[in-house]
Records
---
Amino acid sequence: MNRHSDMLVFSGELPPRFDEAIEQIGPLLDLAVGNEGMTVEVFRAQGVVVEKRGNRAWLGWKKTVHLYRALSLLRGAWDAEEYTCKEEPCFKTGMMFDVSRNAVLRPDALRGFLRRMALMGLDVGMMYTEDTYEVPGEPYFGYMRGRYSIEELRALDDYAAILGIELVPCIQTLGHLNRVLHWPSMARYADNGEVLLADSEGTYELLRRMLEAASAPYRTRRIHIGMDEAHGIGLGAHLRAHDYEDPHTIIRRHLLRVKEITDELGLQPMMWSDMYFRPDSPTNGYYDGDPSPAAVASVVPGVQLVYWDYYHNTETEYATMLEKHKRLTGTPLFAGGIWTWTGPAPDYEKTLGTAVPALTACKKAGVPFVLATAWGDNGAEANLLTALPGMQLYAEFAYTGGYDAAWLAERFSVCCNGNIAQFLGLSQFNTVPGMRPTALRPVNAAKFLLYQDPMVQLFAKDTQGLPMERHYEMLSREYEGYATAGGLYADLMDFYAKLARVLAGKCRWHEQIAQIVRRGERSHAQILAEELEGTARDAEALRVAWRALWFSTNKPYGFEILDGRMGAVCARLETARTRVLVWAQGSEDEMLPELCEEPLPYTLREGGELFGSYAVNEIVSACRIDN
């Protein structure tokens, strides 16, 4: 493909603000508007149309964003003498940005994602803000968390509109509000530490301010009101005030009050659907039961349900849940997952394994809108740049009606200027050869090996006999090569090269030290302990690279958590080195009881599968670290 700046001469039915849009997305394709070059006639169509013959092209569009996808398709076929493509998406598709799990995207970084979305043809961006938006009169909303100002959100909405993308607010109006409710001044609104107090007039006064503030910066009248995972609703302050009530009854009454507010504000609400299933589940689960008559009766008309599912691997499982939703409310919307929440490295084996059957089921069921989510649970350790291939996957499925690996790679090269193999290969960080995941979630070795304590080795039995050091040494060389080659994602690849180097050093220690100490091999223990100094230097280099990567895409808030985690990694490496050196040099006073305990299985299941460990406080110690 010829990737120097090529000139285009446009005529025909151009969308509003086309000149502004092409100024933003043209450089990504090395295309510019001029008075000479390829002539491009633009016309209205039923979807995306691209025709090219020699130095002339015809581009058709129904929605504004279709034209920008058509331009990216034209760029991909630039060297073809003739090319024809017609696409009508099988559902509307969008991307949810999680800006509530410590990482709050910088506005300029979010604009970069919006530009890529336009080239892909994704026409909805959803801003998941639990507390990271400004609420006038509520200073603790997003306090010290990098909240967006009303002006920042309004400017982002303006920018998205230029590209033909609808930006939609997504907030929480019941659960998932721990970061607001943990402030002492906000305790009066709490049923428990996560859930708002239903049936309190003060709560609804707060919700009105929240809904007004959340919707004000946006053109759209659509709003996502959350309502998911409201665990323990009615069992805290509400129970003390009103005695026990069925959760379905409380949720319906609360939702009716929220709906009154959205109606008054002229908003069209949607919500997650899981709380219509959880109260009737013996496990408090989402997918293991049918909607009860009480659940059906509690549905509030006029609130669109969104079925979310990031876990299942077969089309049948998704089709079954879609049918269950139809008993509640008709065909729901759907949200699938780009697995960015496993830890420092995303998992694309799981992403592909869940997305393809899910999207296939959604297409067959006539689901009108599909959303890709990329959550940042437990610290947003994976940079959101790693979600780009997943975004491309959802876009290509929507426009082609299926999944083709070669086509996905080609489109990623055009829209994101990257080699998709480098991103998909990040799954190798999570699964060392010999590790087997459970059916519903992948192993996340990169996370638990990074934070596993060098002395208190909770995963020793789970990883016994696996070639961990060798695996990460291989990945270190591979990603060093990608970083050295340069390109748009060189810094990202350098981060993963450094991560692999730290993991290799830690795994060398983990694979050997306990057995060496038990055998009394002091000289060998001394060699391993001395090597930890280099591993600590590598860990510090990783921290610095991580900081640069974080600050390049996110506001500074939240990185203090990763700084603290990596500081603890380095401190414990130093402690392990010091203690083992003292023992290795013959001290009878220094005992190493942690390394002499018989290891027990932790996340290892009876069938040999690893469940993984997704929270740092589950990884670093058997002792409590939070109180």
---
Amino acid sequence: MRYITTPIYYVNDAPHIGHAYTTIIADTLARLYRLQGKKTLFLTGTDEHGQKIEQAASSRNFTPKEYADKISKEFKELWDEFNISYDIYARTTDERHIKTVQAMFLRMFEKGDIYKGEYEGYYCVSCETFFTKTQLKENECCADCGKKTSIVKEESYFFRLSKYQDKILKWYEQQEPILPKNKTNELINFVKEGLKDLSITRTSFDWGIKIPKEIKDEKHIIYVWLDALFIYVSSIDYLDKKENSVFWPAYMHLVGKDILKFHAIFWPAFLMSASLELPRYVAAHGWWTRDGEKMSKSKGNVIKPKEVVDAYGLDPFRYFLLREVPFGNDGDFSETVFINRNNAELCNELGNLLNRISGMAAKYSQNVLKSDNVKDFFSKEILESKNFIDNALHFSKTVQFSKFLEELFKALAIANLSITKYEPWNLVKNGNLKKANALISLCANILAKVAMLLSAVMPDSMTRLSNSLNFKINNENYKKLIEKDELFDFEISVCDNLFKKIETPLLNSQKSEEKKDEDTKIKIDDFSKLKIKIATVLDCENIEGSEKLLKFKLDLGGNDIRQVLSGIAKFYNAKDLIGKQVCVLSNLKKAKIFGYESDGMILSVKSEDKLVLLSPNDLVLNGSLVG
């Protein structure tokens, strides 16, 4: 059983990249579990009560319910457009939720864990949280969001949070429920400082769930966090023991790091009080910045998920979010990095591998690939790729999808490098067609195994890939390909490019416009960082399967011999370039292009439909610096 939940998102504003990140992680987990044959339930939804919603609605001339309906609909429509495979879309304004919260409140009250008193303290409407004086900054702003707090004094019901301090610490120790594990120490330190009883009702506003009528004090509204956290119980009809109630306790609660305290301290205490089992894991991810800066409307640098998807496509967006940052760390959205990952990893390493396999299968085996001889020739490659795939599955268990994807692309590298190493076109030329076809079949099987797991991250693209290889992504084939490590035969059909190369950034922002003029000029110090050297072409050849690329062997002087790839095949004949001197950007970070390493960049100038390599007029020493 796998019950996966996101936070239920507060309807005070439209969906942002943090919401998308959490939801895509949850969706990836759900898809992976279903693929593995695990019975899975995936919940997301919206949190719609509280003073902040009441105020937001009033400022926009809506009733709280009208406003909640509007924003909740925006979330749901976005998740539907993003093909999020949720099973339950939950709302705290649903009647079954209201009844469940009141029933749980009464259960905790009758147990003696809720009592009446008076509260005076600093309250942040934005965070729906009380703070002590020591938790506030000098200007009395809330420590979490930077907004002003107000002193609130009112009658309140309290929850005996202090009663559960030792039990919560014991839960951390015995179950190790917090992911990533390094977050546990922060929680332990917070709990050990001493948990104070928690004010769980308010009387100064009306938009919320009233306490149970049995307590006969209906002027009190239940604290929005106690209300919201019971959504995971109410939405599976736990009290009525209906069909979905068997999924309790939740397996994975996904949250942002800013609400970890509520989900990993308050929530388990509420559950203990209500005599309910605790979740297996609570996993907290970091925040997102843009180009190293905190996002804000005033800066004009807020990332809107729909705009990114409209510009670049859904699967590249999902891939970038999961690949870019280790789970638990803060992430930075850089459009440049996004484009580089799309072009280098999705287009070159993944999409081009499919193109190379389909091209060679058509050329050498009438589009049919048999796996009979693969183990005879390539047992080492099979084992290496299996190890990477096993590693990926290990990382998925702790939500480390950045590592998961890294390992899968290492498996893809085995296939790409095997083509480079064994050169199937030369095998065919030398009469070894059997080994050539075994090599192509090896690569197709590695690609199929990787695609099976990548389908949880990029479902649309991997469905197209599997259709091209003529196999189905389902539990039956998962067992064969991944669990039993079987090799498949394939009948290849043509597939359009899985991913599109991105030539220029497609997103516009106020920030980029403001910096446009500033970015056109550089300082002399910036130019001095570039090392442009003269090199002689020792060898040059076309790359099989690519119309654009030439592979150069260059002499940069002083025993510095390098391999550099350049996309100039349409403008130059490879053999004509041997012996020519060229200008090379020599301190460029190494890159992998079409499965080959490229260590530098050959400089050229393009004018209309012509391209000319930059080279010295007179013969000079190799390694001479330009500048």
---
Amino acid sequence: MTHPHDDPAAEPDADFTPDPDDDLVDRLAAIDEEEAHQRAQSLRSGLEAYELEEEDRALLEAFEADDAAPALLKPAPVLAIVGRPNVGKSTLVNRILGRREAVVEDVPGVTRDRVRYSAEWGGRPLTLVDTGGWDIDARGMASRIAGQAEIAVDQADAVLLVVDVTTGVTSTDEHVVRMLRRAGKPVILAANKVDDERGEIQAAELWSLGLGEPHTVSAMHGRGVADLLDVIVEVLPEFSQVDAAEEPGGPRRIALVGRPNVGKSSLLNHLAKEDRVLVDNVAGTTRDPVDEVVELGGRQWRFVDTAGIKKRARQASGAEYYASLRTQTALERAEVALVLLEASEPLSEQDIRIVRSATEAGRALVLAFNKWDLLDEERRHWLEREIEKDLAHVSWAPRVNISAKTGRHAEKLVPALDAALAGWDRRIPTSRLNAFLGELVAANPHPVRGGKQPRILFGTQVSHRPPHIVLFTTGFLDPGYRRFILRRLRETFDFTGTPIQLGMRIREKRKRR
């Protein structure tokens, strides 16, 4: 019987009261490496008396961590994709990427921030920056969307201007061209929505923009996109002249998650020291995950601002549905989930669900309580009670009290993130893990159930990020006993800020022949 991903927190408590005077850490400290290794070897040899499968033997192989220090990588060239609203910029991005990554809906203004995507063509890596529609007469939020597009142009190596041939050249297109000329960046002109010869004739009118040959494409159907990409890689430099070099794998990746309007975008703007993401009192301003490399604590971090999670994905619709899916994808690609919670309001079911989604994705976890500067003593008292009640299952997560708007205590995010990542990365040597289990079980054996007492035969950490520990046992361990093991693992080996996957492989003794 195999239980590779048991979650004892999701099961009812069993009656198990551990020894309150257990000095496990001191006893482990008294065991030297040679003794621990001999104990583990003895237990491993004893496993051969039990029925083992090929998968068991694979799990028992040594797990080696790669500690090699990587060299700096030169960054891929950056291409900003601009144009007026609803000309098909995001559709073209999806066509280049070969997947539905950018949010697309048949209404203008779905893309609001500048959003980066990694792509490749002909073996050449490049970074695409999708932008919101640029409009000379924009007001309010639309004006800020246009501002994000101008910043994207300024921070790009080259620009792809997308024009809709079905409407022809407009005054807005002419204003965009003037803005691009001022920027002084190489510009490639894409004539989109060309599906036939008639479209080719219409595209000829775009020579009047003075940007050279219009390259005809149909982002929807893929027509001409390969030829356009050939032109793009010829124009782009081999390495970016605007992006900084990064380590392989990039800076540590932090997903900013939380319900709408909790302050995620404000925090990213403060950390980036610029208006990197649109901020508005209207919930749902951010729709695509927006990433930015920021310097914090003297180091680079890649923060990803995500759409606020309002509903379960299956209950959402339209752009909100796809934004929800992309938020989940961003979370799964991150290393740490930085969950923003509004300290001035009671914790909601939504907040609890977001925290649980981060742990279920196996990400390290840091809880940031925003708007802490607005709390009075009474609210602080009740917040502590709410945390004890509703977030007890993640009591191991570091907590930081901040103000996203003013940046108060933002520097405290660094030690919290470092602690969470250290726990997420941690690898317990097999010898130490089995010495720990031996001392733990000797002092606190599993209760007898139905006349039987299951034993732990051997333990091994089969992976990290997050830590995944498998126990070979003679019977099923009660949920309460597994919670006890997890708690002591955290205390002994400092698994701060990370979920731990604890699995069981129940094995019977070989039958004598």
---
Amino acid sequence: MLQKLLIKNYALIQELNINPSRNLNTITGETGAGKSIMLGAVGLLLGKRADTKVLYSTDAKCVVEGIFDIKEYNLNSFFENEDLDYDEECVIRREISASGKSRAFINDTPVTLDILKHLGSYLMDVHSQHETLLIGDQDFQLRIIDAYAGTISDLKNYQSLFLAYTKAKKRLESFKESASQMQQEKDFNQFLFDELDKAQLKTGEQDELEEKLEVLENGELIKVKLSEAYQLVDGQEFAAIQNLHQATESLKTIQSYGKNFQELSERLNSSFIEIQDIAKELEIAANEFEHQPDELQQTQERLSLVYSLQQKHHVDSVEELLKIKTELEEKLLAVADVEGSEKKLQKEVDEAYLQMNKKAQAISQQRIQHFERLENELKALLSGLGMEDAVVKIANQTKTHDKSGIDDIKILFSANKGIAPQNLKSIASGGEFSRLMFAIKYIMADKIAMPTIIFDEIDTGISGEVAIKMVNMMQRMAENHQVITISHLPQIAAKGHQHYFVFKDNTAEKSVSKIKLLSDNERSLEIAKMIGGENPSESAIQSARELLAV
């Protein structure tokens, strides 16, 4: 529900501020006074595009702001999906600068026009005789049927089942495609797996082989250097170990003469013992180390195999080769179990289809049961609106399951006697068509929480008793929904809970459109002028009072 509307610096409007009633609001005014301008500003709140031509003054920006009570519209998920702060009092604002830059805000958070348009569709429904009417859209027609038949919640459940079915079907199709591909690649994958399996690779093997190869390739040099080191340490008459032994003996003779001499003696003695151990190990290593040409060749061949496999699979380590081997094994096992997996997925598809189809059939039956009742109710309403010969028929054909079910529903309409009902898309919109839309919205107002409804001169082409019937319907709609109607008929203007008057002020150099909420006396005079002209007679004034009193 629209609680407040502020328009600043838009077209002929300097500043306009209204707080419409939560019930029926009527707006009147002379042609060209600015009623359509106000609707244009409202369109900005609904995500329509604008340019700098809309600015009343190029020295300031245009601002259009609406404050809405949205607690009855169940929009929490919309705000969550769009990452917006939710509040039961929602503020929408559009700003257009003199440079042409446009910005949109929802609860002070910048948003795109698409998001604004999406939210606006939940908040306001502007119905104009001259617009391309939504009723021609088949999805909208189906929403009418579901609202009337009470199948909206069932449809949501069906859509969950439909989504589950389509996902199961996609999984099956994807599996079949991948299974076919795997079958084609089976022989090659088996060859690659066998090759890796035969290699018997081990984690860390490459580092060990490369280290071993380096030793084997330098075997002769290692043998020579080990012998040479042993000879220098302990293998000859004046080896290092002999000199160290003499040095330790020399220090032992003086170690009692001072603490520092004792520490030096102990340290040297420790070193002597360590060198003795090293000498023994050098002797053993020099005697045992053998150059092994055969093992060198084997190691070279093993590393060559590892490098070849790495190059083939475009990797740099044995660990990656082992991972590839595991993946190949999984693919081969999957191919081996293709038939079983496909049967399992097909069973899931079949079960999902049965559940979905059962729900779709139930929804279809419930929809069909309400066709005749809706046709008759619309015919009765249209007859009361001056269209006694109007006929509404609901045609239905079964279609393949989609998100809306299995019903291909079309609302057919004829306003004239002897003319067969036709698809709404093939009928040009006009006064009669607008009355059909009005009748539908009247019925829907009792079924669902509708947004603020704005009727823009929907009463064009009617008068007298029909106008009274139409406004009575508006009053009933306004018991549970906010209705704003722009009208040129006194019968309708008199029935509003609030009456706004749009006028053009020409006292300044530039004309300005203004709006005011009429007092009882002002309202009586304005309705009298709508009946009898600018200078209404006493009878016109009396008629106005009678209309207001009813």
